[in-house]
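In the previous lecture we treated proteins in isolation. Real proteins rarely work alone, and many bind small molecules. This record shows how such a complex is specified: first the sequence, then the SMILES for S-adenosylmethionine.
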Amino acid sequence: MACQLYGWRDRLVGEIGGAVLEIGVGSGANLPHYRHATTVWAIEPDPQLAARARRAADGAGVRAHVKVAVAEALPFAAGTFDHVVSSLVFCSVTDQNLALGEIRRVLRPAGLLHMVEHVRPQARALASLAHRVTPYWSQIAHNCHLDRPTVETLRAAGWDVRILGRFGVFVQIEARLA
Ligand SMILES: C[S@@+](CC[C@H](N)C(=O)[O-])C[C@H]1O[C@@H](n2cnc3c(N)ncnc32)[C@H](O)[C@@H]1O
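The predicted 3D structure, ligand included, written as tokens:
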């Protein structure tokens, strides 16, 4: 994603193996891109999207189990997963820190968090515009925020964050527990 968005889902999940949890799986758009995962557990708060994700999994050739749940209360035991995936979800979660705490809990000690998220623009004028627009945008876009400093929030929560690429406001992140 250093210079393009094309193929970002493949770059996000294509190489991941082991025990995987995807949060906010939506309609399951990432599922066909898991080439190495044997089983993917996924959560999604919207039951209709969860049903679509289950259908997507059937056609994707990956064994996926989709539960209706939120990132702030993950229905899994501590230390269950090698990898957690989040794409375009942290703009919308109700509480980023609660979600990060839950992800920390369910990851194994050497586990990795893989994200593609849109974040607060780096340019100050655009960041200010994003901040002013967000109260209106979030009303019509399912709680999507344009002004979240997700990278800084991760670092403040004690994650060791590696930026793999940026394209405008989109950032690909790999994070481990520091
Ligand atoms: C823009 S969609 C992205 C869907 C999918 N991850 C993708 O990349 O296509 C945002 C998703 O986040 C989910 N979401 C919103 N709040 C959430 C929360 N608190 N916990 C988990 N998922 C959440 C929404 O239901 C929706 O499926």
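Summary for your notes: The longest strand covers residues 107-118. The chain has five helices and seven strands.
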